[in-house]
Design brief:
The structure is a single chain. The protein has about 140 residues and is of the alpha+beta class. It has one domain (about 10-130). It contains four helices and four strands. The protein has helices spanning about 30-40, 50, 80-100, 110-130; strands spanning about 10-15, 20-25, 60, 70-75. Strands 1-2-4-3 form a four-stranded mixed sheet, with helices on one face. A hairpin with a 6-residue loop joins strand 1 (about 10-15) and strand 2. Helix 3 (about 80-100) crosses helix 4. It is globular, with a radius of gyration of 15 Å.
């Protein structure tokens, strides 16, 4: 009997943008692929293989079949590397959201980008970390 994959998910509102972001945490990329197919259909994973190498720690799947962006992480971000992965995938997500709405990202509006980035990362960290204390 195969064990059920452990997939944790969080849907976040981007506030000023009428779009949600989903963050999925599961250690196995195949479990994430299965989740994507169930949620968005088989075409949702068409580009995933080209994005994945054996060391991938995160992915951003944007506007999958017209849906909201999805960030995949292997684990809850605690280490500096995990936080860097979350930041990296969050940047991909927000660049694509800004592009979807036709908002350029440059030195004239980088503050708007920064204010979108803060709540996204803060929500992920406070939601997924609430059961485990982090060493300072």
């Amino acid at each position: 009997m195969s064990k059920r994959p452990r997939v944790r998910q969080l849907w976040l509102s981007l506030g000023i943008f009428e779009m949600d972001v989903c963050v999925v945490i599961t250690p196995d990329l195949d479990d994430f692929r299965t989740w994507m197919i169930k949620k968005f259909g088989p075409r949702s994973v068409d580009t995933m293989q080209s994005l994945h190498n054996g060391n991938t720690q995160g992915l951003c799947m944007v506007n999958v079949n017209g849906s909201s962006p999805v960030i995949w992480l292997r684990r809850v971000p605690y280490t500096a590397q995990d936080l860097a992965t979350l930041a990296h995938e969050s940047v991909h997500t927000l660049v694509n959201v800004f592009g979807y709405y036709g908002v350029p990202i440059d030195e004239k509006n980088d503050e708007v980008f920064a204010h979108a980035m803060g709540p996204l990362m803060r929500s992920v960290l406070t939601t997924f970390r609430k059961r485990k204390k982090v060493k300072a």
